[in-house]
Amino acid sequence: MSDLNSLSLYKKESLWIKAWKRMKKNKPAIVGLVIILIFVFFALFANVIADYNEVALKQDYTQKLLPPNSNNILGTDALGRDIFARIIHGARLSLTLGFVIVGIALFFGVSLGGISAFYGGMIDLVIMRLLDVFMAIPPMLLMLSLVAALGPGLDKLMIALIVVIVPGYTRISRASMLAVSGNEYIEAAKACGCSNLKIIFKHLFPNALGPILVVATLSLASTIVMISGFSFLGIGISAPTPEWGAMLSEARANMRYNPYLMIIPGTALLLVSVSFNLIGDGIRDALDPRVKG
Amino acid sequence: MNDVLLDIQDLEVTYEVNNEVIRAVNRINIQLHKKETLGIVGEAGAGKTTTALSILGLLPKKIGFVKNGKILFKGQNLLDLEHELIRQIRGEVISMIFQDPMTSLNPVIPIGKQIAEVLEFHNSVYQNSLMSEKNKQKKTKAEIERLVEDILQMVGISPSRKHDYPHQLSGGMKQRVVIAIALICNPELLIADEPTSALDVTIQAQILSIMEDLKDKLDTSMIMITHDLGIVAETCDTVGIMYAGQIVEFGTIKDIFTGDRHHPYTVGLINSLPDIDSNQDRLKAIPGLMLSPTQITEGCKFHNRCPKCFDKCSTIEPNEYVKGSHRIKCHLFSCTD
Amino acid sequence: MHKYVIRRVLLLIPIILGVTFIVYFILALTPGDPARFILGSNATDASVEALREQLGLNKPIILRYFTYLAKALRGDFGLSYSDSRPVFDSILVRWPVTVKLALFSTFLSMVIGIPAGIISALKHRSRIDVSFTLVSMIMLGMPSFWLALVLMLVFSLSLRWFPSSGIGGWQHFILPVATMSIGTSASLMRLVRSTMLDTIKQDYIITARAKGAPERVVILRHALKNALMIIITQIGLTFTALLAGAVLIEQVYGLPGLGTLTLIAIRSKDIPMVMGTTIFMAIISTLMILLLDIIYAWIDPRIKAKYVGGSH
């Protein structure tokens, strides 16, 4: 038995190591990864580099609209706040929100998908029909009605985003788990008296991991953009919080004569979103080299 | 000899994917005489289909490369031909039947149109030296339609079904359509790549007899690619046994199925055929697996599975033993020539 | 063929019911009492209760939903909280702007995405393919509302080629349509590319080459037709995404469409208005997907043959 275990472990490991080796050759994905790591670094040490209250929020009209200088490497905004500090605190906010939202959505999506795939029958049917209806609504419309119903606020925006992305996760995890659940080794595990939970966690979940990882990475990008979009519209995170979308919204007034106020947060958002997409694509190609052809 | 139609000399084909080189075909020599059928036999991955695709210049672009050798068709090297000239030859002078009729027809075009297409592609008077024997004229639309109906009739499909789409036909009928496509231009050479292996056993015989009939009627030469020695025994005049990209034994049907000198692989293949007369319990398989074509091996490619393997088999590549029309690439015999 | 259309339309009914019910359900659960909202905070409990009864708010939600839907189908989406005028009147004035935006953008996405995808697939792994793919990644990740600001800065504020906001002639549509098409043309391009690559590998493409088909015919007749078939369904989804995505873009360019209307309604907690616009857009989206399904069936012989009462 121990031989068998070590064998399967070895196989699983080699699959991921192989995927990583393939990914290392994928230059765009590595560039994306490096950019994200830089943002993560600044996000982690944002408070060390620039204090939130003292630098990112404190207004100082004597210092307003300064071009980049030795004190403010990206200059200051219309209220005299250091743009670099606001960008890295914005990164902290966006990345945290992105990971938290995607993490919670993953939990619900994979659990629902697993239940659906494992039990089948009526449970599966009910879950899938419900998903069909949710997925028939354009995501943006669903978001709008949820935001309208729940009202403004960060927690509500998070709930809305989770509700919007869970159906997709559920569908994908169900499909990839179903792909193996008919396999003989699952039957064998059942026949051996393996408990349901053990089968779900040891055999079904690992199989859904690849596709789910791809979708989760890609939706990190769209989630972060979505948060900024709603903050930009004034129905998400509002000023004076250093959120990139909110910063863009503030920058509109001075856009004509101080375009960098608008260019900088937008570029940060673009970099993060493109990088997550590149990583997601890279993972997909690495896990399934056939797709690349 | 004068009536040699196709002469493949020292052909070497590699596939190159992601810096990995796969040696699919390693210096093979094959001859096909006019109006004869040549069988190429071997297991999956032996390089049979690759050989066929290189004759028509259909190796996947940027992946498959002919590294060496000549493919002489009526004395002219097909590998030297320009794109347009080889295109004119495809379907008109040399045509091909593919393995899986389920996927080799376009799902969104009616079958009649898929057959007529071949005539349309070749409906101009070419300045192609390889076609000089045919005098042809431009066909009208009505003539093309009539030819399509004729060929459908010949392969045993009612002409009224020419407006059907592939999904409306059974597997056997689809393969008949594929045969019709291959034969409508009266080609001089027909390459059939496992034409029956995707079909039910009961239909295999029908399809084979249709092909045999038409081939005789149209005076076509044929290359029959298969892994089934039974089909070879029924249809072929000469046989090449292919293993790991090499022709290990080549000869007339008599050379291969009779006589006492054979390559151990051929012996294994023949022994693995079920024998109704003897009361055997299980089929005799050849033990082991074919070496991966990415591995570069010394010596004979078959030595790891060969029951008669001896010391130099694993180090020195055997020369060919030649006796009349019979060639064997094995150390067991090479010392005697 | 009409059998197929009828079947699709029948299948559409539960989808429209489901979609509208979810939107209704979400919005009906809004915290706060609509009756008190209408009457203001000074109203007595009794008068609020009377209005609740009058509006049918005491009935179970399912009943309220069907009453709402029955009225909506007759063009009655209720009264707006903010100006007490019929919601449908506002929708009637605004919807052409949004639908035009979405249609133009869908068209532009196709014009850019489909040829780019084909070229990329045919020149697989070439320099063109690699650069197209990279550019499409950037386009795909581009936050549309930011792009709107950048385009506005460059083309209206600096170069003064186009008006920066408001409605008027066709010039007012150029920047919004360009903005909206960026993301969708990139995703369309990627889809076309991967479908074409997939199609080119099919056995029937080798068959076509073996027949002696010129390369042009192989691509146009044999590969493209099959690939486009798959792409048609995607176009419906593109339109749908664009319709809802107009919310962000209309706001930036100050276009008076359904998006701006929804946004104002959300800010002022005008629930009947939000409900009206979202349900209206949801219905248009479903109808568009239905239309493309029918076009698909009309082109694809496999579905067509099933319903045309074929000869066999």
Topology readout:
The complex is a heterotrimer of chains A (293), B (337) and C (312).
Chain A: H1 2-24, H2 27-44, H3 46-49, H4 52-57, H5 83-119, H6 121-136, H7 139-150, H8 154-181, H9 184-191, H10 196-232, H11 244-251, H12 260-287, H13 289-292
Chain B: E1 4-17, E2 20-33, E3 37-41, H1 48-55, E4 64-73, E5 76-77, H2 83-89, E6 94-97, H3 101-104, H4 111-121, H5 141-154, H6 171-183, E7 189-193, H7 201-218, E8 221-226, H8 229-235, E9 238-243, E10 246-252, H9 253-257, H10 264-271, E11 320-323, E12 326-329, H11 331-334
Parallel strand pairs in B: 3-8, 3-9, 6-7, 7-8
Antiparallel strand pairs in B: 1-2, 1-4, 4-5, 9-10, 10-12, 11-12
Helix pairs in contact in B: 4-5, 4-6, 5-6, 6-7
Chain C: H1 2-28, H2 34-39, H3 45-55, H4 61-73, H5 87-122, H6 127-141, H7 144-158, H8 171-200, H9 203-210, H10 215-253, H11 258-267, H12 271-299, H13 301-307
Helix pairs in contact in C: 1-12, 5-6, 5-8, 5-10, 6-8, 7-8, 7-10, 8-10, 9-10, 10-11, 10-12, 11-12
Features:
heterotrimer, A: 293 residues, mainly alpha, 13 helices, disordered N terminus, B: 337 residues, alpha/beta, 8-stranded mixed β-sheet, 11 helices, 12 strands
Structure description:
The complex is a heterotrimer of chains A (293), B (337) and C (312). Chain A is mainly alpha-helical. In chain A, helix 5 packs antiparallel against helix 10 and helix 8 packs antiparallel against helix 10. Chain A has 13 helices and no strands. Chain B has eleven helices and twelve strands. An eight-stranded mixed beta sheet of chain B has the order 6-7-8-3-9-10-12-11, sandwiched between helices. In chain B, strands 2-1-4-5 form a four-stranded antiparallel beta sheet, covered by helices on one side. The relative contact order of chain B is 0.14. Chain C is mainly α and 312 residues long. Chain C has 13 helices and no strands. Chain C is flat and about 85 Å long. Chains in contact: A-C, B-C. Chains A and C meet through helix 6, helix 7, helix 10, helix 11 and helix 12 of A and helix 1, helix 6, helix 7, helix 8 and helix 10 of C.
